[in-house]
From TrEMBL:
This is Xaa-Pro aminopeptidase. PANTHER family: XAA-PRO AMINOPEPTIDASE 3. The gene is pepPI_1. Residues 1-26 have a biased composition (Acidic residues). It comes from Streptomyces violaceusniger. GO terms for cellular component: cytosol. Belongs to the peptidase M24B family. Keywords: Aminopeptidase, Hydrolase, Manganese, Metal-binding, Protease. It catalyses: Release of any N-terminal amino acid, including proline, that is linked to proline, even from a dipeptide or tripeptide. It comes from the Bacteria. Its cofactor is Mn(2+). One of its GO terms (molecular function) is metalloaminopeptidase activity. Its EC number is 3.4.11.9.
Length: 498
């Protein structure tokens, strides 16, 4: 490959912001977004080309999940014979000016490949005799000859070393090719194509005349439903995510006094620190909601005060490096002891959660745990005189929902709300099977401005959320290490802070 012809210039002049020219027929190097390049002398250009060690890794082991990703691709292949399937990882997204959000590969891509690098694309090419050949398209290592590695915004000198295509093949168990050739290859391809939309606009643009919304949606739905039942590897990852989350909750309890002197952000930061020190991330924005903020379901601003006497609703989940996330909520008394009314509401939610968890077993309808929990909550609301009974009337009209607000749970996996585009008949109207993992998370929320409840209730929000695996004979609470009863929560807090 011919190198970039760097500008002929007098290096004694002021540096210029002009980029090196690109030889005809070559893709231009994508410039760093601010484009402020100093001039490059021939000597510097020549120097940058050489003197670098060969770092190719020859002894890479396949990823632990490689056998699982192969099985998942085989199931995908069987579902769409004869179609070319395109599953992109997605691209970096600008946060501001020339900074990007941290990259998170699309769930579909990571599930099928084990890879998580930006711009990657899995292509399943149909074979004449049936089945597909899976190929991973990746950005290769940066070229040093043409200066790409230090002059391009995606050059390895800026963003870090990538796997070579050969290394990627060893690690992921798939043939790997240069992704920069893919759009042209796809433009020239014949036959039906399906792409997972929403991740890579450039690739979609190259496919506009080959794909249909309906076919693409079928692919997306299949990939969502494929994840309803987790394999052994996934269950292990989910348990690891939950275990780390438990440690994060313990960390938060230990610093509640410091949070009282600052804000909910101290709690968010403490939980995030646990995720990071263990090499992980969080699977969604931590909800650190103290006092009346607990009544806002997705309170992620986390900029409010943490006051003694208030409740803290902490909804947080560590996401493993393999992208499996926990989703756990505890509602804790900031000063370590529930007030009588806080305890009354908490124990009602606990009772609802117990009823919900008891309804999680293979063969049960997905809706059963929701119905069981809602019945308990409706009964409590009637008992407390907040809504007129009988309970059957309340449930039929859904009147309890003014205070229960959300569904009692959801599938959990690589996405916190996993399998979100599965069809109603396989998910919400479906039947639980061993290997499914879901949350059970009833709550009661009395808004600060809710004039229909006595004043003392206003501003109280309680949710208890655990992660449950459906087993062959019932269920396993993956987050059982965190205490749930009001007494156990108080004792646990006393132990951690005492
Ligand atoms: N953390 C969001 C949820 O519980 O669904
Ligand atoms: Mn949840
Ligand atoms: Mn949650």
């Amino acid at each position: 490959m011919g190198g970039v012809q760097f500008e002929e210039e007098d290096v004694t002049e002021e540096p210029t912001s002009e980029a090196p020219e690109t030889p005809e027929g070559e893709e231009p190097i994508k410039q760093r977004k601010n484009g402020l390049y100093p001039g490059v002398s021939d000597e510097l250009a020549a120097s940058m080309k050489s003197g670098w060690a060969d770092t190719e890794q020859h002894d890479l082991e396949p990823l632990a999940q490689a056998p699982h990703t192969a099985r998942r691709r085989a199931a995908l292949s069987a579902r769409f014979p004869g179609d070319r399937l395109v599953i992109p990882a997605g691209n970096l997204r600008t946060r501001s000016n020339d900074t990007d959000y941290s990259f998170r590969a699309s769930t579909e891509y990571a599930y099928l490949t084990g890879d998580q690098t930006e711009d990657g694309v899995l292509v399943m090419e149909p074979e004449a005799g049936g089945g597909h050949t899976a190929t991973l398209y990746l950005l290769p290592r940066s070229d040093r000859e043409n200066g790409e590695f230090w002059l391009d915004g995606q050059g390895e000198l800026w963003v870090g070393r990538r796997l070579s295509l050969t290394e990627a093949e060893k690690r992921l168990g798939l043939p790997a090719r240069d992704v920069r050739k893919l759009a042209d290859e796809l433009r020239g391809a014949t036959g039906p194509v399906r792409v997972v939309r929403g991740h890579d606009a450039g690739l979609e643009a190259a496919l506009t005349d080959k794909v249909t919304g309906e076919r693409d949606e079928e692919l997306r739905v299949f990939l969502s439903e494929q994840r309803l039942v987790k394999d052994e590897f996934e269950i292990g990852q989910l348990q690891a995510a939950v275990d780390s989350t438990v440690r994060g909750f313990e960390d938060v309890v230990k610093v509640l006094d410091k949070a009282r002197a600052t804000s909910e952000r101290y709690i968010e930061g403490t939980f995030f620190l646990r995720a990071r020190v263990e090499g992980n991330d969080v699977g969604y924005g931590t909800i650190a909601a103290a006092g009346p903020h607990a009544t806002t379901l997705h309170w992620v601003r986390n900029d409010g005060p943490v006051r003694s006497g208030d409740l803290l609703l902490l909804d947080a989940g560590v996401e493993t490096t393999t992208l499996y996330t926990a989703d756990v909520t505890r509602t804790l008394p900031v000063n370590g002891t529930y007030s009588p009314l806080q305890r009354k509401v908490y124990e009602a939610v606990y009772e609802a959660q117990e009823a919900g968890i008891a309804a999680v077993r293979p063969g049960a309808k997905y809706r059963d745990f929701h119905d069981a929990a809602q019945r308990v909550l409706a009964t409590k609301l009637v008992e407390w005189g907040l809504v007129e009974g009988p309970v059957e009337r309340v449930l039929e009209l859904g009147l309890q929902r003014r205070w229960t607000l959300h569904g009692t749970g959801h599938m959990l996996g690589m996405d916190v709300h996993d399998c979100a585009v599965a069809r109603t008949e396989t998910y919400v109207d479906g039947t639980l099977e061993p290997g499914m993992c879901l949350t059970v998370e009833p709550g009661l929320y009395f808004q600060p401005d809710d004039l229909t409840v006595p004043e003392e209730y206003r501003g109280i929000g309680v949710r208890i959320e655990d992660d449950i695996l459906v087993t062959e004979d019932g269920n396993r609470v993956l987050s059982a290490a965190l205490p749930r009863t009001a007494d156990d929560v108080e004792a646990w807090m006393a132990r951690l802070t005492g």
